[in-house]
Amino acid sequence: MTDYVHRVTIAVPEAWMAEANQLALCLGESGADSTTFTLPSYQDADGHRYAVCSTVVKTVFIDLATQELIAPEFAPDVDLAAAGRAQDLLVIGSLATPEIATPDHIACLLGTRTERPQDHITALGISPIGELPLSQ
């Protein structure tokens, strides 16, 4: 776990979930990353909906997120064009200088792994839509 020194919290507008999942597949560590963003369970003050993921990542995350994307060995058929569209929308901030979630970009907050996900979510300017269903 010591390699995972950062926390990222990412808010993906509902319309960009498929592309964001392809980006997550490129940046992630397994094929399971293709289903990172499945449910838009948060919203902003205007009612725009977002799928959110908060996780710990390695330092290399920023490098991978900002350089030319390549298909990982575990996902040679990743849709690099879709992942690239998501990458173009990715804006990275921090708790000190947060990126507010809006429908026209994918907002990401990067911090230390000890930062609380709820603090990131609040800084993104979003809140839960309501109780999530028990099963999907």
What does this structure look like?
The structure is a single chain. With 136 residues, the chain is an alpha+beta fold. The chain has four helices and six strands; from the N terminus they run βαββααββαβ. It has a six-stranded mixed beta sheet with strand order 4-5-1-3-2-6. A hairpin with a 5-residue loop joins strand 2 and strand 3. Helix 1 packs across helix 3. The longest helix has 11 residues. The C terminus is likely disordered.
Number of DSSP strand runs:
6
| Mean of residue pLDDT values | 92
* Coarse shape: globular
The helix/strand series, from N terminus to C terminus, equals EHEEHHEEHE
Low-confidence stretches: 131-136
Strand neighbour order, sheet with most strands: 4-5-1-3-2-6
Beta-strand proportion: 15-25%
Helix content class: 25-40%
- N- to C-terminal distance: 30 Å
Largest sheet: 6 strands, mixed
Count, helices: 4
Structural class: alpha+beta
Give the tags.
4 helices; disordered C terminus; 6 strands; 136 residues; alpha+beta; single chain; globular; six-stranded mixed beta sheet
